[in-house]
Amino acid sequence: MAYSEQLADRIRERFEMLDNVEEKRMMGGLVFMYNDKMCVGVMKDELMCRIDPALHDDCVEQRGCRTLDFVTRPMSGYLLIDETGMRSNKDLEYWIGLALDFNSRAKASKSKKKTKK
User: Fold this and answer.
1) What's the domain count of the chain?
2) Quick check: is 74 in a domain?
3) From CA 47, how far away is CA 114, in angstroms rounded?
4) Closest CA to 7 of 24, 28, 30
5) What's the rounded Cα separation, in Å, for the pair 51 and 76?
6) What whole-number distance in Å separates Cα of residue 59 and Cα of residue 34?
7) What is the pairing mode between strands 37-43 and 21-26?
């Protein structure tokens, strides 16, 4: 599945001054890991953000924002923002700011141990 390289470049520009950022292809898109935790990503033409679940309900009321519904399971704390919600750099900065703010408190996913063959 293709994702918006233009949006990925906008995110890269925002993250270029941060240390410990890694890009990973995941969920049919591109995810930006910050401090080894999922932070934001690109799924098709939408921005995916991992935010504080306590802010979730208020955020989905904003223009262009909806809950990430991955494999028919809504995920609280994960948002998708379409182009109407991130047209300006200020809008994009708002969403990325929420994700970066939560990142310091977010739990890292458990790493899968590789078995030796």
Assistant:
1) 1
2) yes
3) 31
4) 30
5) 9
6) 21
7) unpaired
